[in-house]
Specification:
Length: 181
Amino acid sequence: MAQTVGRNIAAPLLFLNLIMYLIVLGFASWCLNRFINGQTHHPSFGGNGATMFFLIFSILAAVTGVASKLVGANHIRAWRNDSLASAGSSSLVAWAFTALAFGLACKEINVGGHRGWRLRILEAFIIILTFTQFLYLLLLHAGMFSSRYGPGYRDTDYGVGAAGAGPAGHKGGGAVAGSRV
């Protein structure tokens, strides 16, 4: 089976997004733990009024992002329309949560105040992930325009069996020897 352009670009982007989502999950979990414990005076943390919401949506985006990347890896391996449905829908949900976290990151930056290096890195990763996840989502659905970029939505010949197949999928299409007709 020939490799398509979309598959060759989506696979490294999937891996990059998976690593970035895992980093976001680690940083956001650490920061949320400090925030819940009331340790916002830590030099590498800080925060403002938007921090709690930003951390919650960052963790939510990271968890759904990791899950969508696992489903996406299955789709990259199979690269068929039936695996595209689950990969596309989970990636869309992950992108939506990431976009919400992006908005809260922008709000947190706009409010200002002391934000430690961990929060600034988390903000940067969320901002980058918003765009790379959107690019990955576009690459998954690029087959709608040309089968060169994806599995091709117009591919209707898979799953129907071989030419001349009978009702049970046996080749030959005729009666099986020893059976009643």
